[in-house]
Amino acid sequence: MDVDVLNLDNTVDIVSQPHYDSPINRLPPELLSIVFDYTVTSNTFSHSESTSEALQLAKVCRRWRTISHFTREIWSRLTLDFEYPSCLGCHIPPDSTRGSFSFFSEGVFRSFQAHIRLSADASLAISLIGLGYHTPCAETFLSDIAREHPRTVRNHPLQQILSNAGRIQELHIDCSPDHAEVMHFMRHIQHKLIKLETLKLDSRQASINHFLNEMPDIFPDDQRYNLRKVDMTFVTGPHQYPSLFSSHFITHLDLETTPSSTLWALRSFPSLDTVHFSIITRAEEVHNLREESPWLSITHPNLRMLSFGFSDDGFWKGISLIQNTLKLPCLMHLAYTNRSMIASTFMPEGAELVQSTVDLLIRSTCESLSLSEEPSPTQRMHILSQAALRSLRISGIALGGDNLLALLEKTPSLTDLSLREPYRRIIVREETPPLFTADFFGKLRSLSFLPILRSLTLCITPDIQSIVKEFAQVLEERGTLLSSACLEIHTIFRLQGINLPTERLRKLQEKVAFRVIQVGPGYAQKTLLGYVPSMRTGGMKPEAYS
Q: By its UniProt entry, which Pfam families does this protein fall under (predicted)?
């Protein structure tokens, strides 16, 4: 059912094409309600305007309005954006403003009320942005509204949320610019959050230590029985972690940190399911970690997704050393991202990274298979084929074609692979050869073993015509490389005067859903050759664009 909804969403913009004879209007109400639920992700309200996806659907026609009103979930996803401190900063007598809070327009407030009303008894997913303004007025206002003080203006949107706090299932708070006000506010309302299962905290200034130290007071052991997931995003990481609240409730973590603090986090948070580390490091710390890593071993039984981000090729050393200490038997998704997307030189640690990744998979799989002995060279390939890893994403990294081929040959368990080349400065182009070359594809055809992929995405540089032809030849000769798959080639460069091998690729589309996409300014995408979902068969229909 999810695939059908996605296909419909790709085929027709349900807001911009409300015609009665459009395919989506032929759907029964039950399926159209599912499409609505998939489409609406957030309804945002600020002091002067609202952007409601649910309301846009309800305005299309009478039928859509009726169905949307009965789809309670689309009205329950609310984002309240306090753009200015004044949104939290004044108490104004209701009689002087006709009962409305002066910094939220009457129209915005009424629309917000309507969303709360139409969500009925559905669980609420609430996002609060800019709640951390540190002013005396804001402090007084948040304290009063949390305690339901008589002087608090009753028709402020935040008061409407607190009146329905017992229905909140997901709560996301952007704690910028000051986390202290947010924590003070949370202490007053935590007893109302009886259905809260997911808590997301995001701060661009504060250290995670401030939150972890206060969490046990905000959510005592006898009152947090429904809380299942805590997602934290912080720019500054700690050197040590409290062991109280954090040890059993934090499942998602996004943290800018050093290699040493990364190891502390993995050791201290046994419930982590998904983690992204933005690595910041120094030469002396890498040296110390290299000395200690042979004696370190950290097993994390629950981690399924591990992502590393960095802004310079040199950080690979720290990442390789981190991987050398880990055993992750449930690891299914692994990602490496160079955030600068510019490679100034060829990465000399590419081979070291490949080896550390392969060793990580072998150690982790041996852990899951309860193998205590070191596997022999002949057993390693068999063990790798049983690894839990399914998805690998490498973005903006001058890994080198030979290193990439070695990695592909030693990761037979992969089903989803995404590779994005780094942008290369003209002055150092000789030092950073393209990743996808004719030589690369020639070696790819001759590899003895390749993973059978469901999805392959290549983000490439200007020479798209030769790349497409070379890869078409690989697909023809190695037909098992992709099985009922989606292959996407993205290029950020303008393609003028390029003649793609359309007829050749059309034949490949009989077994592979293939498309070439040009990514333009603002990441706008144009399909040069590709597929669209077929409404009649549910399959993929090839389309060529000149």
A: F-box-like
